[in-house]
Design brief:
Shape: rod-shaped
Order of helices and strands: HEEHEEEE
Distance between the termini: 205 Å
Structural class: alpha+beta
Strand order of the largest sheet: 1-2-6-5-4-3
Radius of gyration: 65 Å
Helix content: 55-70%
Length: 239
């Protein structure tokens, strides 16, 4: 029995030593693993700021791009607004020019119409008609005839004295109706026309190629006015 105990003790010690070696190996492995983990962490931790910085750097162009896009949109909107404002201003200017041109044209048309009306009034409507009087070729009226004016005041008295203002105004009215200057006319007779305010004058050119009988009517404050003229074919009649 005593011989077997030492051998059993050796086996037991051997087993204990084996366990101790295993524990030591595990501890060594854990320490190595920790060293590896710490090294990896150190390496990874050292690169992390660079990665973050890279990430930030990578994000910056995106922000710049967004800002650039916004600036571009703003410039585009501004450009479109400016173009729109310019087009609106151009349209308003064109509308203004058009409106001004229209008003000007209408004004010119109005002036032309007024001038035409004035010319027509000045020229008047000349009417020729046949006459049953043997000494008359035709009878003429002109709507443009107007009173010749007068220097007389107060109550008008028709005079046939050959020298008064009234007589001279009759001569002026006769020349006005015929269109022949007084100096080129022969006043054959000026007589009463059937009432105190009416007269008749027989005149001709000095060569007697043109002969007229003119009817005059007095207009208060305005003078003698021609109302009718006979174009005569002879002066050989009772006047």
């Amino acid at each position: 029995m005593s011989e077997q105990k030492p051998e059993f003790s050796r086996v037991r010690r051997k087993r204990q030593n084996s366990k101790a070696n295993k524990m030591l190996n595990w501890m060594i492995a854990i320490v190595v693993l920790l060293i590896v983990l710490v090294g990896v962490k150190i390496i990874t931790g050292g690169n992390a700021p660079d990665d973050n910085q890279a990430a930030v750097t990578d994000d910056s162009p995106e922000e710049n791009t967004v800002l650039d896009d916004q600036d571009g949109l703003a410039e585009s909107d501004s450009g479109e607004t400016d173009d729109g404002d310019e087009e609106t201003a151009d349209n308003q200017e064109e509308g203004s020019d058009t409106a001004e041109g229209t008003v000007k044209d209408e004004s010119e048309d109005g002036e032309q119409d007024a001038e035409s009306s004035k010319d027509e009034k000045h020229e008047g409507t000349v009417t020729y008609s046949a006459s049953e009087d043997a000494v008359v070729d035709e009878t003429m009226t002109n709507t443009s005839w107007e009173p010749i004016g007068t220097s007389q005041t107060g109550n008008h008295v028709s005079r046939y004295d050959g020298s008064s203002a009234d007589w001279k105004e009759k001569q002026k009215a006769l020349a006005y109706a015929t269109g022949v200057p007084e100096s080129d006319l022969i006043f054959w007779k000026i007589k009463n026309g059937g009432s105190p305010q009416k007269s008749i004058g027989i005149v001709s050119t000095k060569d007697k190629s043109k002969k007229y009988r003119v009817y005059l009517e007095w207009v208060d404050g305005e003078g003698w006015k021609p109302t009718q003229m006979d174009i005569l074919n002879t002066l050989d009649f009772n006047y």
